[in-house]
Amino acid sequence: KRVAILVSGGGSNMVSLVDSMTGDHPARPCLVLSNDALAGGLKKAAGRGIPTAAVDHRPFKGDRAAFEAELLKPLQDAKPDIVCLAGFMRVLTGDFVSRFQGRMLNIHPSLLPKYKGLHTHARAIEAGDADHGCTVHEVTAALDDGPILGQARVHIEAGDTPEDLAARVLLWEHKLYPAVLRRFAEGNKTPVLLP
Ligand code: GRF
């Protein structure tokens, strides 16, 4: 199975996914694509010999369709079987997503359906939640929605800042996403629940 990974920043989730696709794993990375030509994830991917591409979203301003038409070119050329959004920070339209329906995954730093959108760690602390975590889900037209394929749960400790919590959740993202990708690539949609 060919896996394309979309990143916007440092790409730590991409690295975890790429480094998991070895040996008898049924998938291999075929492209790392970003909306930012300077994204640290692109350098890390290139260092691992993975083809990369970037389509800067800024020249397209509000014209999301035009940006996505450009983004689609390297993505379709890579002929992915699975597309993983990994720290990809642009909202994708239903039209774009529909081209990969059922084979596009995303990781979101909350226990969905709680805290869709941004600033999830601060919101969980603010709400006084005992637990927080991350979710891998199939991408649908609705933001941070779609069938849940895995979750990792962490406790919120007294005195946690959003940064403390984000760092702890990120470590679990790096465990959860590779586990979900392997199952998904094997055709198994049984949710992965960690720890
Ligand atoms: C992190 O905040 C992570 O929680 C979310 O995307 C951000 C960057 O992740 N999934 P990465 O290091 O670029 O994978």
UniProtKB/TrEMBL annotation:
InterPro entries cross-referenced by the UniProt entry: Formyl_transf_N, Formyl_transf_N_sf, GART, GART_AS
Domain Formyl transferase N-terminal as annotated: residue spans: 1-181
Keyword presence, Transferase: yes
PROSITE patterns in alphabetical order: GART
Residues carrying the site annotation Raises pKa of active site His: 144
Family matches, as SUPFAM superfamilies: Formyltransferase
Gene3D superfamilies: Formyl transferase, N-terminal domain
Catalytic reactions on record: N(1)-(5-phospho-beta-D-ribosyl)glycinamide + (6R)-10-formyltetrahydrofolate = N(2)-formyl-N(1)-(5-phospho-beta-D-ribosyl)glycinamide + (6S)-5,6,7,8-tetrahydrofolate + H(+)
GO MF annotation terms: phosphoribosylglycinamide formyltransferase activity
Role according to the record: Catalyzes the transfer of a formyl group from 10-formyltetrahydrofolate to 5-phospho-ribosyl-glycinamide (GAR), producing 5-phospho-ribosyl-N-formylglycinamide (FGAR) and tetrahydrofolate.
Protein name, UniProt field: Phosphoribosylglycinamide formyltransferase
This protein's encoding gene: purN
